[in-house]
Amino acid sequence: MDIKEITPFIGAEITGITYEDFADQATVDAFVDAVNQRELVVIRGFEITPQQQVALAGRLGTPVPFVIQKYRHPEVPEIMISSNEKKNDKPVGVARVGNFWHQDSSFVADPAPYTMLHGVNVPSTTGHTLFASAVDVYDRLPDEWKNKIAGRNGIHTVAKRLRIREEHVGLSVAEFRAWIDIEHPKVEHPLVVKDPYTGREYLYGAPEYMDGVVGFDANENEAFFALVDSLIQDEDHVYTHRWTPNDLVVWKTQTTLHAATDVEPGVPRTVHRVSIAARA
Predict the structure, then answer these.
(1) How far apart are CA 204 and CA 195, in angstroms?
(2) TauD/TfdA-like domain spans which residues (predicted)?
(3) What is the pTM of this model?
(4) Alpha-carbon distance 17 to 200, whole Å?
């Protein structure tokens, strides 16, 4: 097994490894350490079954079933199927997931700390995934803004990105917003957090999952969001993962910002996703 840095700011790639190698505790420890230290780990061409994916996810924590039952794998409920494909004229999974910069589930009080994706049917020319480090973003904040956000909380919400489903048809905008506030109440998280594994501070607050910063007025929020977006999307600080068949990609949800990119029309794409909660 060999572990090498992908970029200076995020990511490690592991080569020379098979699923069977994870029977060795030293291999497991090296894998978990790489995820925690480098925030993102890639294993190319890693052929595993859905059951093996969930078993491997269990090395990091507790795999949890996806919240929407119809998008769960039919045999392995811990797997969410992200797919634009159809079977018997019905969607195999949910399409267009996360096509914006975000930190997974920051809009809930206790988000799962890890996410694992396995590329089941992935094109290499489209549908890439972009990654950036929240540690790196915080490091590049001007000192003026570091001082302004020190000790402050961000207000997180899914309202900007919540999908309208069949049961919402007929609701007014006001009614839909009221429903969101009831079903998905806003939560607060500290804007600056120290990573327990590396000791480094990171920015916990992607604008698309935020309502604002506690104590900021509208102009301050607008300026802060514009600055954060520019830092996240700086091409020199973004890793583009161009998928190849059976890639396994794992990341820490709080320190890893990411965004899916569009899939070319008519090109099939299916990825299996596991959300991994902390062990009780």
Answers:
(1) 11
(2) 3-274
(3) 0.93
(4) 29
Pairing outcome for strands 248-252 and 270-277: unpaired
Contact 248, 117 (CB under 8 A): yes
8 A C-beta contact, residue 125 and residue 264: yes
Largest separation between any pair of C-alpha atoms in the chain: 57
Instruction: Determine the Cα–Cα distance for residues 204 and 156; give it in Å rounded to an integer.
Output: 10
Q: How many CB atoms lie within 10 A of CB 169?
A: 7
Paired strand residues for 252: 114
Strand-pairing partners, residue 171, are none
Q: What is the pLDDT of residue 151?
A: 98
CA distance linking residue 178 with residue 35, whole number of Å: 39
- List pLDDT tens digits, range 230-273: 999 999 999 999 999 999 999 999 999 999 999 999 999 999 99
**Three-state secondary structure string covering the chain:** CEEEECCCCCCEEEECCCHHHHHCHHHHHHHHHHHHHHCEEEECCCCCCHHHHHHHHCCCCEEECCCCHHHECCCCCCEEEEECCEECCEECCECCCCCCCECCCCCCCCCCCEEEEEEEECCCCCCCEEEEEHHHHHHCCCHHHHHHHCCCEEEECCCCCCCCCHHHCCCCHHHHHHHHHHHCCCEEEECEEECCCCCCEEECCCHHHEEEECCCCHHHHHHHHHHHHHHHCCHHHCEEECCCCCCEEEEECCCEEEEECCCCCCCCCEEEEEEEECCC
Q: In terms of Cα–Cα distance, which of 134, 143, 250, 234 is closest to 193?
A: 134
